[in-house]
Amino acid sequence: MTRDDRIEWLESTLTESIVILDGGMGTMIQGAGLGESDYRGDRFQDFPQDLKGNNDLLTLTQPDLIASIHKAYADAGASILETNTFNSNHPSMADYAMEDLVSELNREAAKLARTVADSYDRPVLVAGVLGPTNRTCSISPDVNDPGARNITFSQLVKTYTEATR
């Protein structure tokens, strides 16, 4: 099924029925009971910072787990799989000193979800996830300076532009 076919299927189906989106990726990952070494995998074995909790990194270090979660949702009837990219943006990845991986994380997560979706004999779509950053430009992080912001609107535009490349 081509991209145009998928778009046509979605538009047509939405006029007739409900389309089911998958569920939470983070809760499924938490249920797997992963430890620090699982998050690191071979590639980041010697990385100088703790990585446990960086669920988006699992696309690179535990792709079989992420694929199995996508598959579980599709098997349960989801017609749209969301990429494992909730925190794949520069500010969020900076907490792990992994901001240079943003493009790779987004690209590989989309490829992985698309591979799973294509394994079905029915239309299964993939939606890219752009989660919030861990910074806010609407509330001051400093009670003594209500005008202070830890990120600007322009920086957020740059963040989301980078995440969608």
Task: Write up what this structure looks like.
There is one protein chain. With 165 residues, the protein is mostly helical. The protein has one domain (3-132): Alpha-Beta Barrel (TIM Barrel), CATH 3.20.20.330. The chain is 45% helix and 4% strand. It contains eight helices and two strands. It has helices at 3-14, 25-31, 36-40, 58-61, 63-75, 90-94, 102-118, 153-163, and strands at 80-82, 125-127. It has a two-stranded parallel ribbon with strand order 1-2. Helix 5 (63-75) crosses helix 7. The longest helix is centred in the middle third of the chain and has 17 residues, at 102-118.
Our count of domains comes out at 1
Strand content: under 5%
Determine the structural class based on helices, strands and strand pairing: mainly alpha
| Corresponding CATH architecture | Alpha-Beta Barrel
Q: Which strand order do you get reading across the main beta sheet? A: 1-2
- CATH homologous superfamily title: Homocysteine-binding-like domain
Q: Any idea of the CATH topology? A: TIM Barrel
Mind summarizing the main beta sheet?
2 strands, parallel
Terminal CA distance reads 23 Å
CATH class call = Alpha Beta
